[in-house]
Amino acid sequence: IVFRVQSPTNGIPEDFMQAGRAVRAGFILTAVPKTMTSVAATTSSEPRGLHAPRRRLQKLLAVPGSDPSRVNDLLLLRPDADDRSDSAVKERSSNRHVVFFHGDIQNFQEEMALQPDGSRWLHWSLEQVALILGRRFPDRHVWVVRASCMYLNKFSCYHNFVDSNMFGAPEHSQDFGAFRHLSALLSHGMERANLPNPLQPRGGADTIPSGLSLTLVGFSKGCVVLNQMVYELSGALADPQVLHFVKRITDMYWLDGGHPGGSETWVTDRRALKELASGGVSVHAHVTPYEVRDPMRAWVGREYRRFVKTLEEFGACLSEKLHFEDEPPSIENHFRVIQEF
To answer: What's a GO cellular component annotated to this UniProt protein (predicted)?
Structure first.
């Protein structure tokens, strides 16, 4: 979500405040250790006719990444296969992971409920998004990475992945260390969650578990993390400490990217996009009119078209879709792309 901010003390604009509605969600707490909450999770908004077994959702707090001072909270939703007796299914699922980076206003359920602005959007809490992604990727571990800072309880700031201002607008560079931080974060998260055969933190080919595959998903502000990784890609592929981790990324999803800066909502640097296209990663771009057809931020649509055109020119494995094309732009549809992609 992109907020139109006049000053740091302004609230969410009226069009945001009036759009949408709060939706109750069901979460059953089964344990509350010091650093991890285990949750058996269900949702009241299951698509009709879809069987959705109860799945284990774990909250992992203050997980360190590439540096002890860089920590992020994580949610982990284990795959359905954990509850099946088919050992072959378990083995295939054990090393397949989806990592999600959220947008503005999204937070843990209990924290959103305490905020007047956040309580209107409980249906898109981090827990609910984990469940949505669990239905989209039923045979994989789903990781939701909470931004390290939520300025004014609204603005997601991914300071550990990309240099950003207080509102989360990024300043991209080629060597910030987003890949290195994600690798270490997942390694420590897997260890904390007691997953079998976890990723090892020291880097190198021998630290990658057999069959490991990674799918990265950014939504709205969360796309700044994916953008930073694109800028870092050339250097990461030349670094033996992260090379083999990067090569396990099979898919990257950009879901309606947006942030409060005046440029670089989408990567348009040709050298960076050529590296992405040649790396064999499947690129998926899903957008809505809320972001790419906003006349007040016309550069977003222009950058998106350049992103797509340049990747097509370089022969990338690319899929792209404009959702809700015939509906008026709305924040509700902006969120709904998480369900529809």
So the answer is: mitochondrion
pLDDT tens readout for residues 166-179 = 998 898 888 889 99
Q: Are 66 and 177 in contact (CB under 8 A)?
A: yes
- Please provide the distance, in angstroms rounded to a whole number, between the alpha carbons at the two ends of the chain: 17
Structure-block tokens of residue 313: 């020119």
Residue 62, both tokens = 């203050």
> What is the sign of the dihedral through the CA atoms of 297, 174, 164 and 225?
positive
Question: Is this structure's pTM higher than 0.90?
Answer: no
Report which of 182, 181, 201 is spatially closest to residue 191, judged by C-alpha positions. Answer: 201
Domain boundaries, the chain: 23-340
pLDDT in tens, 101-140: 999 999 999 999 999 889 999 999 999 999 999 999 999 9
**What 3-state DSSP class applies to 244?**
helix
Residue keyed to tokens 């990727």 = 137
Burial of residue 139, with CB atoms counted within 10 A of its CB: 0-12 exposed, 13-18 middle, 19 or more buried: middle
> DSSP for 2-60?
----SSTT----HHHHHS-------EEEEE--SSEEEEEE--TTPPTT-----EEEEEE
- pLDDT value for 55: 66
